[in-house]
């Protein structure tokens, strides 16, 4: 298969961006990060992209009158890279329905909770406050509903008795760095496909999110390894 063209959107230091680029370079994703876009000029991930020789661009959302003009400019910047897949990696913007619909089926996000639990912000603190014994992260297709798109894959981590928000966040983020490349790899290989309302995994309906290190195999269901 022709390597997929990936554009990554960031707002911060870009640790998931690094994980995705590294996975592409190792051949774990049949793709190449061809562009990085940030809504914040001080995002640390921009420097990482420069160091890897990846074109980067800043679209400061503060320079636009509202969500719609910003999203229109963002969509144009993304399309200039001719992407097959757009990956939100810590991109701290709520996207307008028109933007999401424009990229439906090729727009992924990673969220720091076991969706549908804890949509939105402060997921680690909320999990601790609720006394959860398990937490994690999810990769999902993006729909206009906030953190509500169909989930492809999840990674689970234990919540320890002495956890703080910082320690739980660090443990979950370590899992994210394996989860996002794994999920993106399945999409880029064509093993995961989404035609609303159904995600298919190796041609069969995906009844529940794949679990990192458990359900993902190197062969299609029913084939021998």
Automatic annotation (TrEMBL):
One of its GO terms (molecular function) is phosphoribosylglycinamide formyltransferase activity. The lineage of its organism: Bacteria, Pseudomonadati, Pseudomonadota, Gammaproteobacteria, Chromatiales. GO terms for biological process: 'de novo' IMP biosynthetic process. It catalyses: N(1)-(5-phospho-beta-D-ribosyl)glycinamide + (6R)-10-formyltetrahydrofolate = N(2)-formyl-N(1)-(5-phospho-beta-D-ribosyl)glycinamide + (6S)-5,6,7,8-tetrahydrofolate + H(+). Transmembrane segments: none annotated. GO terms for cellular component: cytosol. CDD domains: FMT_core_GART. The gene is purN. Keywords: Purine biosynthesis, Transferase. N(1)-(5-phospho-beta-D-ribosyl)glycinamide binds at residues 14-16. Catalyzes the transfer of a formyl group from 10-formyltetrahydrofolate to 5-phospho-ribosyl-glycinamide (GAR), producing 5-phospho-ribosyl-N-formylglycinamide (FGAR) and tetrahydrofolate. Belongs to the GART family. It comes from Thioalkalivibrio halophilus. Residues 5-183 form the Formyl transferase N-terminal domain. The record marks 147 as: Raises pKa of active site His. The active site is at residue 111. It comes from the Bacteria. Its EC number is 2.1.2.2. InterPro entries: Formyl_transf_N, Formyl_transf_N_sf, GART. (6R)-10-formyltetrahydrofolate binds at residues 67, 92-95, 109. This is Phosphoribosylglycinamide formyltransferase. Pathway: Purine metabolism; IMP biosynthesis via de novo pathway; N(2)-formyl-N(1)-(5-phospho-D-ribosyl)glycinamide from N(1)-(5-phospho-D-ribosyl)glycinamide (10-formyl THF route): step 1/1.
């Amino acid at each position: 298969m022709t390597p997929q063209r990936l554009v990554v959107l960031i707002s911060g230091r870009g640790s998931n961006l690094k994980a995705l680029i590294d996975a592409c370079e190792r051949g774990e994703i049949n793709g190449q990060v061809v562009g990085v876009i940030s809504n914040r000029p001080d995002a640390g991930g921009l420097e990482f992209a420069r160091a890897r020789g990846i074109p980067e661009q800043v679209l400061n959302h503060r320079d636009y009158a509202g969500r719609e003009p910003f999203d229109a400019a963002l969509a144009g910047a993304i399309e200039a890279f001719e992407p097959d897949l757009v990956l939100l990696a810590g991109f701290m913007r709520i996207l307008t329905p028109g933007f999401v619909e424009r990229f439906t089926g090729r727009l992924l996000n990673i969220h720091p909770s076991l969706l549908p639990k804890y949509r939105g912000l402060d997921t680690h603190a909320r999990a601790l406050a609720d006394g959860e014994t398990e937490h994690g992260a999810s990769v999902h297709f993006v729909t206009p509903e906030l953190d509500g798109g169909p989930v492809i894959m999840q990674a689970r981590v234990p919540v320890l008795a002495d956890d703080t928000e910082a320690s739980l966040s660090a443990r979950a983020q370590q899992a994210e760095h394996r989860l996002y490349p794994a999920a993106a790899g399945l999409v880029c290989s064509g093993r995961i496909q989404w035609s609303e309302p159904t995600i298919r995994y190796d041609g069969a309906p995906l009844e529940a999110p794949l679990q990192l290190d458990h359900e993902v195999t190197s062969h299609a269901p029913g084939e021998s390894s």
